[in-house]
Amino acid sequence: MAMAAGSGGAGLAENFAVNTYLKSHDAVDSLQQRLNLVAMYRHPDIDILSRLFYAHPTPERLLWYYLNHIDVVFHEDTGVTTLDVRAFRPEDAKRIADELLKLGEERINEFNRLVSENTIKAADEEVAIAEKRVKDVQHRMTAFRQRSGDIDPTKSSVVGISLIGQLETELAQSDTQLAQMLRNLNASSPQVLTIKQRIKALNEEIEAQRRLTQKTKGVYANIADYDELMLDREFAQEAYMTSASELETARSAARQQQVYVVRVVEPNLPGMATYPRIFLMTLAVFVGSGLTFMIGRLLITGMREHAI
């Protein structure tokens, strides 16, 4: 079986880490828990010389036996890892290969999770701090408005002063109009009386607006506080936007560092046994037997010659 691991970055360290993990005690423990590895390699059909000898092997013995039945090779030039599993039944070999691939993917996912946590955690904290600052300023502004009874003291003061100015302008125009009328009309004429009523009403309105201004002096005195709150809110909003942008940058960086596994070749069910190699073993037996026979014959011949 072959698999390739890659990432938006190099991913070389993760590749080596996964390959090391597949040959570690942790991988053996996981296989034992999920597949009962000992039972697989102690199946009654396995000959006594090849099977796992101990029913309850120590972790070191089980790891040694396991490493003698798997090969994990990482090719740096291609980024491909080749996994070869040897067992005494085809289905056992495939199950072990499938499970090792799952373990490798789980370890890769764990790497990705840690990378995301380490990269995004600090940015998340900055966003939370900036968001809290924005909310705190908003609460202070709400409390200020409730206390002052004015949504925007700056605008209110400008409106009040502007209204008094408009009324005083109208009053001046009315006074000028009255003076012109008195040159030509009697003081008791309807036109003169009307303009006098208007002048009186304007004076009363101006006085009322001035009294209102006197009542709201406390709010006007707090305009500086309101401006400070507005400045704090602006800074808080800018800090929040900056931290939110940094969070998106951190997430993008985390995505680029994501490591992933691609199954180049899926684990397959063997159609024929790779071991034992019957022809080679038979040949080795014949050669060994022949050599033993020849050596024995030479020894016997030599002993006979010396006996004579």
From TrEMBL:
Keyword hit for DNA damage: no
Entry coiled-coil feature ranges: 164-212
Gene Ontology molecular-function annotations: protein tyrosine kinase activity
Presence of the UniProt keyword Transmembrane helix in the record: yes
InterPro entries for the chain: Bact_polysacc_biosynth/exp
GO CC, alphabetical: plasma membrane
TM annotation in the entry: 278-300
Assigned keywords, A-Z: Coiled coil, Membrane, Transmembrane, Transmembrane helix
Domain of life of the native organism: Bacteria
PANTHER family, sorted: FERRIC ENTEROBACTIN TRANSPORT PROTEIN FEPE (PTHR32309:SF13), TYROSINE-PROTEIN KINASE (PTHR32309)
Protein name: Lipopolysaccharide biosynthesis protein
